[in-house]
Design a protein that fits this description.
Arc Repressor Mutant, subunit A, 52% helix, 5% strand, globular
């Protein structure tokens, strides 16, 4: 019996998005600052009203001050408190969505999971995580793969 070939899916191994915004100057709130960071690294899309990822990163940054590690339930509770304080709608606060957003933040190496608790990577700065993980490891390997595709296209055409 002949095996029927499976159609290959065009799913990326890594998906990186970078955007450049104006310099962070003036009277920008902490939440707006985190929001611009999320937009800059592709965690949030421009015009996206479902911005719970901003609040998740915000509460983890706040927890870093005291070197506290948070469970997804604690993160959800703090996000609800923050969104209530900021008078924001309680969109995207389902447990499943909180976990999905945590995974997305982990994928850019800003946070890590240790025994079902989350923290900013190595309780260090975001700059360290960005330079050490993303810029030194993920970006070069992604660029190398793109070059392989460019070379292959150049060879075929």
């Amino acid at each position: 019996m002949a095996k029927v070939g499976k159609k290959a899916k065009d799913l990326p191994l890594v998906d990186l998005t970078f955007r450049k915004y104006e310099k962070p100057e003036g009277n920008i709130t902490k939440r707006e600052l985190v929001k611009k960071l999320c937009l800059s690294v592709g965690l949030l899309q421009p015009g996206d009203s479902r911005d719970v990822v901003v609040d998740i990163l915000y509460v983890l940054l706040q927890a870093r001050k005291t070197k506290r590690e948070l469970s997804s339930e604690e993160i959800k509770h703090l996000v609800v408190e923050l969104r209530t304080l900021e008078k924001l709608p309680q969109f995207g606060i389902a447990n499943s969505n909180i976990r999905r957003q945590l995974k997305r933040i982990r994928d850019v190496y800003f946070i890590e999971k240790i025994k079902n608790k989350y923290r900013i990577t190595e309780q260090s700065t975001l700059l360290h995580a960005f330079e050490d993980k993303l810029m030194r490891y993920l970006l070069p390997s992604t660029m190398d793969r793109i070059k392989e595709y460019i070379n292959e296209v150049d060879d075929k055409f």
